Amino acid sequence: SAPRTVLLTGAAGGVGTRMRELLPGYGWTLRLLDMHPVPDAPDAHVLDLGTADTDALRTAVRGVAAIVHLAGISLESTFEKILAANIRGTYALYEAARAEGVRRVVFASSNHAVGFTPVPADGAGLIPPDTPHRPDTFYGLSKSFGEDLAQLYRDRHGIETVSVRIGSCQPAPTSVRGLSTWLSFGDCARLFHAALTAPDVGHTVVYGSSANTRLWWDLAPARALGYAPRDDSEPYAAELIAQHGELDTGNPEQAHLGGEFCTHPPRWPH
Ligand code: 15L
Question: What residue spans carry the region label Disordered (predicted)?
Answer without folding.
Answer: 248-270
